[in-house]
Amino acid sequence: MSAPNMLIDAAIFTPLIAVVGILAFARMPNLREAVSILAGLALLLINIELYNSFNEGQSLTRHWVDIVPGLSLSFRIDALGMLFSLVASVLWPVTTLYAIGYMRGHKEDNQTRFYVCFAVAIAAVMAIAYAENLFTLFVFYEVLSLCTYPLVTHAGTEKAKQGGRIYLGILMGTSVAFFLPAIIVTWLVAGTLDFQAGGVFPEQTGIALLSVLLVLYVFGVAKAAVMPFHRWLPAAMVAPTPVSALLHAVAVVKAGVFSLVKILVFIFGLDTLQQIPATDYLLYLAGAGVVLASLVALRQDNLKARLAYSTVSQLGYITVGALLAVESGVVGSAMHIATHAVGKITLFFCAGAILVASHKSNISEMAGLGRRMPITMIAFFIASLSIIGLPPTAGTWSKWWLLTATLETDQLVLMAVLLLSSLLNIAYLLPIPLRAFFPSEPQTDGPIAIKEAPTASLIALCITAGACILLFFFPNPLFELVSQIFTEGSQ
Amino acid sequence: MLSHLPVLQVILPLLGAPACLILGRGKLAWLFALLISALSFCIAAMLLHTVYHQGVISYALGGWQAPWGIEYRIDLLNAWLLLIVSGSSTVALLAAQSSIDVEIAPEKQTIFFVAWLLCLAGLLGILATGDAFNVFVFLEVSSLSTYTLISLGPKRESLWAAFRYLIMGTIGATFILIGIGLMYIMTGTLNMQDLAQRLPLASDSSTVFTAYAFIIVGISLKLALFPLHLWLPNAYTHAPSIVTTFLAASATKVALYLMIRFTYTVFPSHFSQIDIPLEEIFIVLGITGVISASIAAIYQADVKRAIAYSSVAQVGYMVVGLGIGGVLGLQATLLHVFNHALMKATLFMALAAIACRIGVTTLTSMQGLGRKMPWTSFGFVVGGLSIIGVPLTAGFISKWYLVSAAALSDRWLLVLLIMIGSLLAIVYIWRVVEALYFKPAADSTPLKEAPLAMLLALWLLVFGNIYFGIDTRLPVSISAEAAIALQEGRP
User: Fold this and answer.
1) In whole angstroms, what is the distance from residue B303 CA to residue B365 CA?
2) Residue A295 near chain B (CB below 8 Å)
């Protein structure tokens, strides 16, 4: 076994080793957070090393154990997985930095449990990203659901528990009721669960069966938040903001769309997908979800709720891109996984910063806040542009590819839907920073002097906002990685 | 010496029982019983090893050859069951002293161990013997001692539960005896191999037909197959905690063994396939049992009772596998026999540990125990995950095989219902998890963690649940070989 293959183990176990360190230093907060940050940086280095090996064309695989003959826990790095793991591992240390400021500024309880669950979630994300087969992916998909539950219910209030119940109920329920049966049927029909270029189903598989399977997968992977199984995401917003930021804008939801893209491309295969009539219906359903979620977002006054519905809508873009079943669509989807991640995490960071600094969570109270928290609000503005898809921000590129794909497949309705949703994005995102800087009525100084958020949090949100702009000017590494999704599979 | 292993397997605990009485009260009786049980386990392991490598062992009791003498016949099926029963007895006995110190008065403790060894001898006897009448004798030995064990429970209800079980159990045993008698009338033999050869000759007669019906119904009663399960929740709830642990892991399994033995080895196969639609009956009753008992489990206030209902549901799964038939269906059943013994013993062991510290096992009394008894609580959670069938636990393996068997025989409705059964399991397990970890404790009095012996036994089982969920070579290969042998050996 060569060294790069061992790195796969290292990537999965680094966060778990961090868990031990976090528990050991439970009573020394500074050391405890230092462990988290160091583990984050180590994981980032490991992933960069993996990325280099991957670019050299090495085949990176790791086989753990055969559970039942043919059903194994094993890992193999491909372009899509590399992208996802890089996104998660870049954002983990940044979020930890942010969390230190937030959790202390907010004086949260049970911080050790918080950091432990967080690290376990990252380990699960790594394993999902590298999964070689559907079984491995499913196992860690469930681990991710379970270990994020304590994070959702962190506050311990009745509302938090209610949210947690919806969260786990929908995620576990759909995965057992739809996802697992779909996997079992796939196993029985195809005889394998390995992700393969061009799909695994034999030629003679019935269209009806494939349609049923496709529907089961799309709804079963509820982490992708395809309507009507999106309710868990707004419910999860009771969690502390760092959780909402990394997990419910990046890790968990992206694990969902990542799984979905992986299934669509490597279990079904684009050619098969084009022949299934159900694809079209699901495409329209996802398209409807994009617009509906945007409309709902427009009506939310709670900032985090608005961002949550915005996430539901943006995840819809990724689903649509994959369901279009053309390469440009998948490329757009994959790029959107990355660009939406940096954009949305910035927005959540800002929301949390506002909460810590001013104790405000409703948008209507935020007018005029710009003068007191200029850095936060500028970052919010940049990230908003990225979500909308305007230059000079990263979101431009992914939306560009997605629109190209709709043109390529003559789905003009969908193109209109995506454009309409972008307009709605403008309507629900931009007013927030604009009113913050240019309030319609002059603000009187309140009794509490509001300052910027804790420094650690500020640094974090500046990094991610900077990344939004950076990825606009230097999208090439990202694009090169993404375009290997298909070339590498055909080798 | 080695050639006498089949009879030693039964004689050892049978002679150990009176010896235990002589040893008198106190720890000595416990240590002796533990030693006997552990020796039985070693013998079972040696037998399994021998059978696996050298084939069926036939042992003539007292040197009298069958069909005149009594034959002990060990094939893979009963060697496998012998291992499960003696293993669960040993693990349960390990924790027994700590548990009964709280629940049973000192002067009754010796009787307790005597009854335990007799029960063990009875169960092992049923498994080892190749003689139909001998089965009845050992059935009575185990039943009578089981009634004694249950009536030793701490509350007055135990007497009532034991009495109900006595009535139902006696009816069941009588039915079996009538069936055996009728077979003897028609064939003049009691040896199972002999019966298998002679019964097809007389299979037109309504006497044999009646014998068949009596035996199936009688065994179903002992098996607690829906709708003949009503004795089980009471018996399990009110028995001493550690007795429940042992019985849940062994007694129903032995009844299931009898069902397999009679339907596969003794009676001609066309009985269950043509004359009586037994396969369909098994599937319908089994899955109805799964669903109804799981729903009943959700509404129980006493966790021990809920888990007892879960046992009825799990028996349902095993019978479903039997109904599906074929090598795969049988294999699913045999796997579940083993895996269910593991997970049910884990759950009841955790409950025994809780009962040992707080005296009751109601849901409300268990609130907040996650912090007070972390090791016990976590053990319960692992057992619960296994019951649900989460991947990487033993429960997943049996579900996987069962669903595969159902799907390959094109019973898609059954697949769906099995999945619903899993979902219901999530609900009744989750109620407990929520009480353990997410509800505030009723009072803040500190509790000690369970006694070391109980924790040791519990964690042995927890380890088993996880180990056999990952490295499945042993149970899968043995159950596969046993299923093939049964299928081929069908007269």
Assistant:
1) 10
2) no
CB A473 within 8 A of CB A392: yes
Only one residue has tokens 């006897």, namely: B125
Q: Is B419 close to A188, i.e. CB distance below 8 A?
A: no
CB proximity A153 to B under 8 Å: yes
DSSP states of A56-96 as a string?
A: TT---EEEEEEEETTEEEEEE--HHHHHHHHHHHHHHHHHH
- State yes or no: pLDDT of B307 exceeds 90: yes
* Chain B interface includes A113 (CB < 8 A): no
Query: A107 vs B423, which has greater pLDDT?
Result: B423
Asked if B397 and B475 touch (Cβ cutoff 8 Å), the reply is: yes
Total residue count of chain A as it appears in this document = 491
Instruction: Note the pLDDT tens digit of each residue in A393-423.
Output: 888 888 988 999 998 888 888 899 989 999 9
pLDDT at B27: 83
Q: Where are the alpha helices (DSSP H) in A440-489?
A: 455-473, 476-487
Bridge partner list, A68: A71
pLDDT of residue B285: 93
- A194 three-class SS: strand
More confident residue, A441 or A267: A267
The conformation of residue A265, written as its DSSP 8-state character, comes to I
CA dihedral B148, B154, B159, B160 (to 10 degrees): -130
Mean pLDDT of B449-470: 89
Picking from A67, A172, A181, the nearest residue to B426 by CB comes out as A172
Q: Which of residues 371-410 of B touch A (CB under 8 A)?
A: 390-392, 397, 400-401, 403-404, 407-408
C-beta atoms surrounding A442 within 10 Å = 6
Q: Are B115 and B149 in contact (CB under 8 A)?
A: yes
For residue A71, the cross-strand partners are: A68
Check: CB of residue A397 under 8 Å from CB of residue A331: no
Q: What is the crossing angle of helices A476-487 and A327-358, to 10°?
A: 140
Higher-confidence residue: B176 or B326?
B176
Strand partners, A75: A62, A131
Q: How far apart are the first and last CA of chain A?
A: 22
Instruction: For residue A185, give the chain B residue with the closest CA.
Output: B407
Q: How many CB atoms lie within 10 A of CB A204?
A: 5
Both tokens of A66, joined, read 């055969």
Could you give the maximum distance between any two Cα atoms of chain B, in Å?
A: 71
B419: nearest CB among A67, A176, A187 = A176
The count of other CB atoms within 10 Å of the CB of residue B156 is 9
Q: Which domain holds residue A227?
A: 3-490
Give pLDDT, residue A491. Answer: 39
Give B182-204 pLDDT, tens digit per residue.
999 888 888 888 888 888 887 77
What is chain B's Cα-based Rg?
21
Of the partner residues B415, B438, B476, the one whose CB lies closest to the CB of residue A161 = B438
Q: Is the pLDDT of residue B491 over 60?
A: no
Q: What is the pLDDT of residues B350-400, one digit of tens each?
A: 999 998 888 888 888 888 888 888 889 999 999 999 998 888 889 898 988
Calculate mean pLDDT across residues A127-131.
93
- What distance in Å separates the CA atoms of residue A481 and residue A400, rounded to the nearest whole number? 17
**The pLDDT of residue A1 is above 50:** no
Interface TM-score (ipTM) > 0.90: no
Domain total for chain A? Answer: 1
